[in-house]
Design goal:
With about 240 residues, the protein is mostly helical. Helix content is about 65%, strand content about 0%. The protein contains nine helices and no strands. The chain starts with 12 loop residues before the first helix and ends in a 23-residue tail after the last helix.
């Protein structure tokens, strides 16, 4: 196991820079999720409204936890960085309850799997925050899946479901970052994360496969996703 690090004074410049990047990326993901689910409230049926409001509040609290850690570490606020990134690289907004459920199933779940790679992070303050987020996120991972499966099997969305699935599958996979990069290797060597992004992508696809099959969906040709992917992903539905 890599040496645990508690203070930035004990870091190399490369390690410190990567920690800052990790915090900025996580803050972006948390605030983007809060915005996306907040926008989607207009489509939420009454019986799910209380849950979605709670979910948005949870995403906002996770953003605040990362923002506090960032300010303690850098002395700066993360919000200007996140706002700039959101302006240049916004997450699409769901335009129906069905699409919001698909986003919960794939975008939210992708973020959860991505975070689990950091729950043994060698930088202890980051590990502590990530473990808290992972624990809280674990409680609602099956909700979007259940709604998507039920709606897809109803026959009401046969003309929409595959397109929405492919759209949000790509967005969910983007949560992991590019596989096989030098940054991935360095992060693994330093104990910041456990595995390469490509390995996480493969596990994510395997995790959602039973629901994809049950919903009558199919994984697209990987070339259609137009992104870097490991060559050995099992795309059978």
């Amino acid at each position: 196991m890599s040496t645990e690090i508690l203070r930035k004074e004990d870091m190399t410049p490369e390690y410190r820079q990567l920690v800052v990047q990790l915090m900025e990326s996580q803050a972006y993901r948390e605030l983007a999720a809060a915005h996306m689910f907040g926008y989607g409230l207009r489509f939420v049926p009454d019986k799910w409204l209380k849950f979605m409001v709670w979910h948005i509040r949870e995403e906002a609290e996770h953003y605040e936890a990362v923002a506090k850690m960032y300010e303690e570490f850098t002395g700066d606020e993360v919000e200007p960085v996140v706002r700039k990134r959101l302006a240049g690289k916004p997450v699409p907004m769901a335009e129906s309850w069905m699409e919001l459920a698909m986003a919960q199933f794939l975008y939210d779940r992708g973020g959860f799997w991505q975070l689990k790679e950091y729950d043994e992070c060698s930088f202890v303050p980051y590990r502590t925050v990530i473990q808290k987020i992972v624990k809280e996120e674990a409680g609602h991972q099956s909700l979007g899946e259940r709604i998507v499966v039920d709606y897809c099997r109803s026959g009401q969305y046969d003309d929409l479901k595959q397109g929405l699935f492919e759209k949000w599958l790509r967005i969910g996979l983007l949560s992991f970052g590019r596989p096989g990069t030098a940054g991935n290797r360095y992060a693994i060597e330093q104990g910041l994360k456990k595995r390469d992004s490509g390995e996480c992508m493969k596990d994510f696809v395997a995790d959602i496969r039973p629901a994809v099959r049950e919903a009558g969906l199919r994984f697209p040709d990987p070339a259609k996703l137009d992104m870097e992917l490991p060559p050995d992903v099992d795309w059978t539905s």
